[in-house]
Amino acid sequence: HMGIHVLHAARGIIEDVPNPIIDLNPCGYCGGPSTGDCEPTIKEMAKGLTCTINCPRKETLQYGTATKGSNTNPCRNVPVICRLC
Fold first, then answer.
1. Domain of life, per the record (predicted)?
2. Which of 23, 54, 62, 76 could form a disulfide with 33 if both were Cys (CB 3.0 to 4.6 A apart)?
3. Is 36 within a domain?
4. What range does the domain containing 13 cover?
């Protein structure tokens, strides 16, 4: 959901929301600047790369079967709570 707000901000589309995105590289959880706690930390691990973001508004996401998709249900879009609107 946050993606639409990021795309609107990148294109200069003004949104009538309580907390509009004002940064060029916003946090994917809260829409604020990707600095401090919201700055992604990427680490190389034995099994690949891991990315950690400690945004105070970060939601614990449990996608389960929604992330797998199937032939009959290919959608992998999992809704989250939007803190902007």
1. Eukaryota
2. 23
3. yes
4. 2-67
